[in-house]
Design brief:
There is one protein chain. The longest helix has 46 residues. The chain folds into 3 domains: 108 residues, no CATH class; 52 residues, no CATH class; 162 residues, no CATH class. The protein is built from 13 helices and 11 strands. With 375 residues, the protein is mostly helical. A hairpin with a 2-residue loop joins β3 and β4. Helices cover 50% and strands 10% of the residues. The protein is extended and about 90 Å long.
């Protein structure tokens, strides 16, 4: 935003093009950096309390608006809802998920507490500003809710792929939103892409956290199988490494060193090459012994393959789980009202952070116990 010619609220001097200007993250009021430092805080606490934004004066009258716009600086966009500094050209706030421009707010229920000024003694926001609960693009009857498309100045800046009541693979858009719960703006466009073009994207959370992510998204069977499988792979790897592979690799290294030392004077830190190890295996090991020597590497490779499979298939798997679960609820409860069905869908879907943490802790304890027993 260009503040040139607008008067600074503290010194009343108009801003110039080369002035160092800072902007209040709550109401958007601009200040000379020195003026803001001198005052120690924004001088419009009433705007903060009423969740209004500062608007430049016209003559002697200062106008306000109840629905503030995000503040655009040279290198960032400051969110109108939570005050988070987003990279320039960002459309949706990285912190709270609200749209940064236009009249559409997608905050469902409660809104995240705005950023507090260090020296702001206004305590009203501590109690009146409740916690943010997540974004629901179908929470109202706006044009965006009906179409799933957001336009700013005639330009489409966001597209979910389907509207609130649009039939989508036998399921309404709002039903997918009710099932997903948090992070709708990530999953709903993906669901549309999977259904229409069979295209998804890599899911880094599923790749990194595996079974924990599946429990978090209430896919209990997949999470259980994945956690059990990876724990068993780890245990087998530890046993094979401790009692078979390591002793054989150590024997191979000693034999190769002894053979080389007889013909060449080498230091004790010298280590055989992989070619030497391979020749030793061919000459001294049966096929089964050679397999045991290589098994830890094979098991590690399998673990990585499982991680990549989770990353590549998590979104499609979650879409299929959501679709089947919603259809089953609707088939089993044909006489329920729309609100009752929505409650059932929300209860079935959503997230379970507590269970995810609990299962992660159990797996960690099991792995630690196995490690202590074997070593």
């Amino acid at each position: 935003m260009n503040y040139t010619g607008i008067n600074c609220p503290v010194c009343s001097e108009p801003f110039k093009e080369d002035d160092d200007i800072v902007v209040c993250p709550k109401c958007g009021a601009p200040y000379h950096r020195g003026c803001y430092a001198e005052s120690g805080k924004c001088i419009f606490p009433d705007l903060h309390k009423e969740k209004k934004s500062w608007i430049s004066e016209t003559g002697n009258d200062k106008t306000e608006q109840s629905d503030p716009e995000s503040v655009v600086t040279d290198d960032a966009v400051i969110c109108r809802s939570c005050g988070h500094k987003n990279p320039k050209d960002t459309v949706v706030c990285e912190e709270c998920g609200d749209f940064l421009f236009g009249s559409v707010h997608i905050l469902r229920g409660k809104r995240k507490k705005p950023v507090q000024d260090d020296n702001d003694n206004d305590q009203n926001n501590d109690d009146s500003e409740p916690e943010y609960m997540g974004g629901d693009p179908f929470a109202d009857n706006s044009e965006f809710s009906k179409t799933g498309r957001l336009y700013v100045d005639g330009v489409k800046v966001f597209d979910i792929g389907f509207g609130k009541d649009e039939d989508f693979d036998g399921i309404k858009g709002h039903e997918f939103s009710e099932y997903v719960g948090s992070n709708c703006l990530y999953y709903l466009p993906l669901f549309s892409s999977i259904f229409r073009r069979n295209k998804s994207r890599f899911h880094f959370a599923a790749f990194l956290f595996g079974g924990s992510w599946y429990f978090y998204r209430k896919q209990y069977l997949k999470g259980s199988l994945l956690m059990a499988g990876t724990t068993v792979l780890y245990a087998i790897n530890e046993v094979v490494t401790k009692f078979f592979a390591n002793p054989m690799w150590e024997k191979a290294a000693d034999d190769i060193k002894n053979g080389v030392m007889t013909t060449d004077s080498l230091t004790s830190s010298w280590m055989p090459s992989w070619d030497m190890y391979w020749n030793w295996m061919v000459d001294h090991c049966s096929a089964w012994e050679g397999f045991l020597m290589l098994l830890p590497y094979i098991l590690s490779l399998i673990s990585w393959v499982i991680m990549f499979i989770c990353g590549f298939n998590a979104n499609k798997g979650y879409y299929n789980t959501a679709r089947k679960s919603i259809k089953k609820i609707k088939e089993e409860n044909p006489d329920k009202s729309k609100d009752e069905t929505a409650r059932l869908i929300s209860a079935k879907g959503g997230t379970s952070m507590g269970l995810a943490w609990m299962m992660t802790a159990i797996q960690a304890i099991v792995i630690f116990t196995v490690t202590m027993i074997i070593r």
